[in-house]
Design brief:
The chain is of the alpha+beta class. The protein contains 9 helices and 23 strands. β1 and β2 form a beta hairpin. α2 runs antiparallel to α8 and α2 packs across α9.
């Protein structure tokens, strides 16, 4: 990697300037349309205006513009003199409850890469400009600047750790005869460094980058990273912990970093969840926590508009007809369990998030994990989190309804964005916020 001086685990990391990153705006597209505003150079020619691209036989992309028609496996449109490119119908929130399409605009260069499944649309850009869009996409433009500074440092640290990591993108283990364990990394993509959605970090274009706060947060923290020992921190984060954050191993591999550990997200004392009784008491009440925010005006200063459509993130409830949930499980898990009798939490993390769950039906039973797989299998899209307890209503052995009483939004590992933003609104500094969520870490300037 050109930006690394060396990266031996026992030596302090040094960077040679700011990294450049490749961001996958979309994948598997059969066709792409958009506009080039300003000067772009492709195959030695200067172009601007409307363009279209489609995948064609022979593993090529066919690009059309009033000034050029070109076909190649990879087409690079180099941005000159601060141009902007716009893309139509970009999907955001893919597979989540808020999925939608929108037009987006980007700085940097545009790459169209042919794959066996379509076109990968890639934005090549400097890390700092990438981050200014990330924090504008993740949170409201009105969010307090101390929180945005913390978010910029966290996102910058995760980005570099991801570039240096050899982590698998996905793990699946089937344990005969009835157990499946999966986890999904925020991992490696074949054609680019990061995708543009929640799987990696939100990167929804410069149309949201309207507040001077966003740019100031990036510029004031330029080159600043969270470091543990001699390594940049793998700084995971999520939307709302529900009052307790979680062990790394609940969502991903069994090994984890010393700074990705559970914490109580308030000044009040609260024991971690250790029994089903404590899980019920915790999740069926609304305890004090930084992310316990219900005031709509306050949320408007923290969350982008589409996230505010999710109003019950701190404590939530989902009610299914039994037959409805059986159909979802059959579709998602590809197993026909018969009539559903029980949903049993076998193992929970410190926040109450389940990472091993048993589903008992009249025909057979199965056990699933980890956290995201449980959220995936029990919902048409995804549950907000795997921190829930189960209530059965009516019907005897086979209930008429199944109610999940849950808490939190996301995997629970690392900083809780809503909690961190609320801390900033209460007067906590960027450094205090990071120290709260990332124990045993330091801040270091690496470029």
């Amino acid at each position: 990697m050109k930006f690394l001086a060396h990266s031996h685990p026992d030596e302090p990391l040094q960077l040679v300037g700011e990294p450049q990153v490749a961001v996958g705006i979309s994948e598997k597209a059969r066709a792409v349309t958009g506009r080039l505003q300003g000067t772009f150079v492709v195959a030695g020619k200067t172009i601007s205006g409307d363009f279209s691209a489609e995948i064609i036989e022979g593993g090529n992309v066919l690009l059309r513009n009033p000034r050029i028609t070109i076909r190649a496996p990879r087409i690079e449109l180099e941005n000159h003199q601060g141009g902007i490119f716009a893309l139509d119908d970009v999907i955001i929130g893919k597979d989540f409850h808020w999925e939608r399409r929108e037009k987006q605009e980007f700085r940097g260069s545009l790459v169209l890469q042919a794959t066996t499944e379509g076109i990968s649309v890639i934005n090549e850009i400097g890390l700092e400009e990438y981050l200014s869009v990330v924090i504008a996409s993740e949170m409201s433009a009105a969010a307090p600047v101390e929180f945005l500074k913390a978010q910029a440092i966290v996102a910058r640290s995760w980005s570099l750790a991801r570039l240096l990591s050899e982590e698998k993108d996905e793990y699946r283990q089937e344990i005969p005869p009835t157990e499946v364990v999966c986890w999904y990394g925020r991992g490696r993509h074949n054609d680019f460094d990061f995708c543009a959605d929640d799987h990696c970090q939100r990167y929804h274009g410069i149309t949201r980058e309207t507040a001077t706060h966003n740019l100031a947060a990036t510029r004031q923290t330029r080159g600043l990273f969270l470091v543990s020992g001699t390594q940049v921190c793998d700084a995971r984060y999520h939307k709302a912990c529900g009052g307790l954050t979680e062990h790394f191993s609940v969502a991903w591999e069994d090994n984890g970093a010393p700074y990705l550990v559970p914490i109580v997200d308030s000044l009040a004392k609260q024991p971690f969840i250790t029994t089903e009784e404590s899980a019920h008491a915790w999740l069926c009440n609304s305890p004090n926590a930084y992310c316990r925010v219900y005031d709509e005006k306050l949320l408007a200063t923290i969350l982008p508009s589409f996230d505010r459509e999710t109003a019950d993130f701190f404590r939530w409830q989902v009610t299914y007809r039994r037959e409805e949930l059986e159909a979802i499980i059959q579709e998602k898990a590809k197993r026909h369990l018969g009539e559903l009798k029980e949903i049993i939490a076998l193992q929970r993390g410190a926040s109450g998030r389940i990472y091993r769950l048993r589903l008992v039906g009249s025909r057979e039973e199965m056990t699933i994990g980890k956290e995201l797989e449980i959220r995936r299998v029990l919902a048409i899209n995804h549950l907000y989190s795997s921190a829930f307890v189960v209530e059965k209503r009516g019907g005897g052995v086979f209930p008429d309804e199944i109610v999940l009483h849950g808490g939190g939004w996301g995997h629970g590992v690392g900083p809780c964005q809503i909690g961190a933003a609320n801390m900033a609104l209460q007067g906590f500094s960027c450094e205090q916020i990071l120290g709260h969520y990332f124990p045993q870490t330091n801040l270091e300037q690496l470029y």
